[in-house]
Write a structure and sequence with these properties.
Oligomer: single chain
GO molecular function: nucleotide binding
Organism: Lactobacillus pasteurii DSM 23907 = CRBIP 24.76
Protein name: Oxidoreductase
CATH superfamily of the largest domain: Dihydrodipicolinate Reductase, domain 2
Pfam families: GFO_IDH_MocA, GFO_IDH_MocA_C3
Number of helices: 10
CATH topology of the largest domain: Dihydrodipicolinate Reductase, domain 2
Mean pLDDT: 96
Strand content: 25-35%
Strand order of the largest sheet: 8-9-10-7-11-12-13-14
InterPro entries: Gfo/Idh/MocA-like_OxRdtase_N, GFO_IDH_MocA-like_dom, NAD(P)-bd_dom_sf
Low-confidence stretches: none
Distance between the termini: 41 Å
Number of domains: 2
Order of helices and strands: EHEHEHEHEHEHEHHEEEEEEEHH
Shape: globular
Amino acid sequence: MKLGIVGSGMIVHDLLSIADQIENLELTAISTTKRSEAVGTSLARNYGIKKTYTDNEDLFNDEEVDTIYVAVPNSLHYEVAKAALEHDKNVICEKPFVDTAEQARELKQIANDHHKLIAEAITNIHLENYAHIKDALADIGPIHIVILNYTQYSSRYDSFLEGEIAPVFDPKRGGGALMDLNIYNIHLAVGLFGKPNYVHYQPNIQKGVDTSGILTLGYEDKQAVLIASKDSFAHQRSFIEGEKGTVFFDGSTGTLDNYTIDLKAGASQGYNFNSHSHRMVSEFTDFVKAIDSHDQELVDKWFTHSLTVMEVLAQAKAN
């Protein structure tokens, strides 16, 4: 994969810090705004990126680049991804995918028309622990209660209270706890249990944005409570509770660093099958393999999952 990056924010820094761990990934180019040109130049120098641009059009016209990583504010995902696809590039788009399911379907159609692939970058469903937790559900089921918690006191929250509104707290730019943090919980719940029968969101609103909130997903035989907070501190623990036992894990639902199976019969054991210490290595390893081999079936499976998540988000924002 010959990757062109659009953006220079924290998530780009994260990816570049572990890019050398991803086989067959070539850092070909990066495009930033003119205001962030110095940042882009510094990143290119520090991580061996061949070319820098301050105009996305120039990046999209670079014939050496075959895949674009869209890592811009949430509200810009759709237009940047669409432009990249129309320039015959594969696209990896950061979470949350786009604003609406309709936009997601449109991007997928453009990708199909251009014989390109598009995938959402969401860490947890590509982790080995996720696959093992999914397998373990049969050992503790039937499952009736799910509690997923991603609480992370935002480094920008104090400034937000003082009136400085960063993109992660700007609802016009796709900010807020639902889109920034609860998106991980939604991906996890949809991946493990499928599409819910109903969705209800109860947010805490400050300055017009949800700084925290509780999302309830109702299934025929279980209830899931998804907690996300950018305005609170907590030692996070998530639970999947069944008649025969419980799976629980501490920390971010985006990293799934380890988990424990606690059986009613008495056995309790911790596990960690993740191959890498950084959450992004597994997902980008998967993306490189799928795009380099043009694995349409696998990428379509990822898209179907992302589309279901978009539909859940739409219901959450509607109530």
